[in-house]
């Protein structure tokens, strides 16, 4: 029996690697001779670098950069030496988890620190940079990142605009004279599970601004500022990508990456699956086990279990999902390659208790599932 274990992390609890290890322990209690292939996964959000480095034997690197409000933070990024590929998780430098709820400020937060991580990767000799953009605290359309790379955004008096998305309402001129020339020789891949456009009712400001601290009035002002930025950018480049899928990701950083870095936008889980060679590992498997903290209708938007199930479905291999909780309309995933889904807790429990005991809960639930499968096997 060959089993592929390809879960995402369980947020605030276990990394994808530790989830995979707990599942493997539970399965081996019933099937000690099974061939287990651990393949930690991610979808472009927090924990992506962990998953890739665990599967690809990469290196952690550190860089002190500016946080979303200009404070100093120590950010990690991943490096694959043989491929000369850097994996940059923008949440490390510009993530919402770096701020207390009372500190969130969608109007002035900046992606400058993420740009500094790109500079560190270029200095290391990166030929390809994979930029994962989940969990941002920013709504600056990526202008902070571009500023770190040498771009200048000027007002009517030829002064550099202050940080943040709201200041873009005063943009008059884009100056790329000192934009880092290495950008042109570097391949950028944008990995995300967000397909929103830059502006409008489904854009970055309206959909994600409130969770980053924007009031209803600020949401409107930010949307107008980002629209103005797109106008000026379109005049400069001669094309307009504000309506493209993913341009609204990470407060509009997707737009900046597509336009200024010529980044290719792809589903995060597809990018990670390629790096981890998941499709190759799945060949000949009897079962695939995946999972995430909460399985619900949002999973259909390209989160890890959905992406893993698509790959397994193409190879006609059944898929089991183990999730912290099963949310609204999770059953819709049964139409997309998932065979069965199971939640962890067997009785009343607080979120804190579930997080603390996640590894044991995952192991025991996996053992329960394996016993059920064992009972249906020939000779039982």
Automatic annotation (TrEMBL):
It holds the Pfam family Gly_kinase. One of its GO terms (biological process) is organic acid phosphorylation. Keywords: Kinase, Transferase. One of its GO terms (molecular function) is glycerate kinase activity. Gene3D superfamilies: Glycerate kinase, domain 1, Glycerate kinase, domain 2. SUPFAM superfamilies: Glycerate kinase I. Belongs to the glycerate kinase type-1 family. PANTHER family: GLYCERATE KINASE (PTHR21599). This is Glycerate kinase. It comes from Acinetobacter courvalinii. The lineage of its organism: Bacteria, Pseudomonadati, Pseudomonadota, Gammaproteobacteria, Moraxellales.
